[in-house]
Amino acid sequence: MDGQKENKYSHLTAIERKYLSFPARYLLNKKLLHGKVLDFGCGFGNDVRKLREKNIDITGYDPHYFPDYPQHKFDTIICFYVLNVLFPEDQEDVIMAIAHILKPSGKAYFAVRRDLKKEGYRTHYIHKKPTYQRIVNLTFESLYKDEFCEIYQYTPYNQIKRKKEYCIFCNPYPKLELITESNFSYAIKDGYPLTKGHSLIIPKIHCSNYFELPLEYQKNCWQMVNFVQKILTKVYSPDGFNIGFNVDKAGGQKVMHTHIHIIPRYQKDNQKINKGIRSII
């Protein structure tokens, strides 16, 4: 719907509290807050302050109230009641950002509201501004659910034991470090890179032909291409990119699980830079 492209008052759902939020208490009591902890979307930082009082090594980030973006990786990341006020593409951006700054052995926890009966704009009871609220369902493991909230545990995709059927992309090696992950796809470095930073975007469902991939997964893969391109630009400073995919053996596909290549290009990479994608093929 046209009126839902921007939820400019989403940050006004943050409220002052004198006590730990329920998700924070739950994770604390279950001893799930390990190592260096980040509260992503911490609002006014109430949980950060209260958890520090309990000797938790925690940092807060919020684009509106604590805007210094984290510059290193964390053992545990919490994200409470953020996704409910974001549209789907923005939700996936948050999940990808969190997956990117989580250590390979780490875990993230998302709390979402379960007391919402319908989606839509409503006037916030404290801030008196229209804020959009969405019903959110994630693909990650559900740790807790009641009528008010649900807490999900995110474990990196390649750290989860899966079905035994062999597919290298359905069962990525645990030793790999994911670049990022979303509800629908994940990104890794190519095992046989054409250039420095050559990466793959891989949907989480087994489908060999890109054109048979559900549109929701196609859309998310390209959103992840945009996300990963920014990371590669920051890390490697390439001079250009080739982006594309192969379909079936005649099209050069080696692994029969859809994947998109994002290949940084450099002025001196000896790949006939004036030929573009034709040279890569």
Annotation keywords:
single chain, 281 residues, alpha+beta, Rossmann fold, HIT family, subunit A, 6-stranded mixed beta sheet, 5-stranded antiparallel beta sheet, 5 helices, 25% strand, globular
Give a short summary of the structure.
The chain has helices at 22-29, 46-53, 88-100, 215-236, 277-280, and strands spanning 37-40, 58-61, 74-80, 102-113, 120-123, 130-133, 141-145, 149-154, 180-181, 185-189, 199-203, 240-244, 260-265. It is of the alpha+beta class and 281 residues long. It folds into two domains: 2-155, Vaccinia Virus protein VP39 (Rossmann fold, 3-Layer(aba) Sandwich), CATH 3.40.50; 171-280, HIT-like (HIT family, subunit A, 2-Layer Sandwich).
How would you explain this protein's 3D organization?
The protein is of the alpha+beta class and 281 residues long. It has two domains: 2-155, Rossmann fold (3-Layer(aba) Sandwich); 171-280, HIT-like (HIT family, subunit A), CATH 3.30.428. It has helices spanning 22-29, 46-53, 88-100, 215-236, 277-280, and strands at 37-40, 58-61, 74-80, 102-113, 120-123, 130-133, 141-145, 149-154, 180-181, 185-189, 199-203, 240-244, 260-265. The strands form three sheets. A six-stranded mixed β-sheet has the order 2-1-3-4-8-7. Helix 3 crosses helix 4. The model has no long low-confidence stretch (mean pLDDT 89).
What strand order characterises the main sheet?
Answer: 2-1-3-4-8-7
Q: How many distinct domains?
A: 2
Helix/strand order: HEHEEHEEEEEEEEHEEH
Q: For the report, how would you describe the main beta sheet?
A: 6 strands, mixed
Q: Beta-strand percentage?
A: 15-25%
Beta strand count: 13
What class, by secondary structure content? alpha+beta
CATH architecture annotation name of the largest domain:
3-Layer(aba) Sandwich
- Tell me the Rg in angstroms: 20 Å
CATH classification class of the largest domain: Alpha Beta
Shape descriptor = globular
Give the end-to-end Cα distance, rounded to a whole number of Å. 40 Å
Mean pLDDT, as a whole number? 89
**Helical content (DSSP H or I, runs of 4+):** 10-25%
Q: Which blocks of ≥5 consecutive residues have pLDDT under 50?
A: none
CATH topology of the largest domain, anyone?
Rossmann fold
Number of helices, counting only DSSP H or I runs of 4 residues or more = 5
CATH superfamily of the largest domain: Vaccinia Virus protein VP39
